[in-house]
Amino acid sequence: MTGARRTALVVLLAAGVLLGWAGPARAHAGGLVATDARSRVVAISPSVAGLSIVTIESGAKLRLVNQGRLPVSIPGVTAPVQPGTTRTWAEPAATPAGRHADGDWSLTLDIGGSPVVVRGVFDRVTPPPFAPWWAGVLGLAVAVPLGCRRVRRGDLVLAGVGLLAMAASVTHVIGSSLAVTSAPFLGTFVDAAGVNLLAWPLIAGGVVAVGRGRPAGLLAVCAGAALTAVFVLPDVTSFHRSVLPFAGPATLERLLVVFALGGGAGTAIAGATVLRALAARPEAT
């Protein structure tokens, strides 16, 4: 077995292990999900001096700031919020995903033995047409393998598309992590990236190897692109929902998913042809 073929075998085995380890990919950073509504606080009754409550992360959580003189007790939250402190928590009643955004919502707090009612509403947002985004994914997944057969340097095309899928995936994870305001960015990013922390270097290293004329480098690109596509697959909910957990325009998020999924899948599919061509070579170095 030649050095290139041994490298190819290692790459393919590593890809298989990583795919199995990845398991069910997480939908978004911080456990946030796409919905069709935004939640917001509209009133606190009676008004309490120094008390403020707002929704964050499109209503996935509430943030209470207590600048008053008395502790604030929250149903379901063990420790009261002491004066001069802030508390962030997930409140099912105010979460669009938990209530399907039907009607208003309310939450009763206890301040010094007196009830204080927090009232909120769900602002519904019309979902976008999903067909164009799915068409983009399928178009890329089909166009990449077909295009590679019609050009002389199909390896460079695949390397370029794999790099595009990686860039889209990186940007997608960064935007999703920035949408989580209740946790430090670095930890959220690492947790959200998951297996991509191995897939991205695999693609980048493979692109460098392709540039140096090493056939096994293209297999690395294809394996990394396949992992990228598998990992971003749960995020196709962005095609069907209007409020996305992404720190940027919703259109940009959908485009990133199209490029990461369609480009990654197309590169992986074309990689099968590349593997056969590599195996057919009598001698590779």
UniProtKB/TrEMBL annotation:
Residues 1-27 form the signal peptide. The chain crosses the membrane at residues 131-149, 156-179, 185-209, 216-234, 254-279. This is Uncharacterized protein. Keywords: Membrane, Signal, Transmembrane, Transmembrane helix. PROSITE patterns: TAT. It comes from the Bacteria. The keyword Metal-binding does not apply. InterPro entries: TAT_signal. It comes from Paractinoplanes ferrugineus.
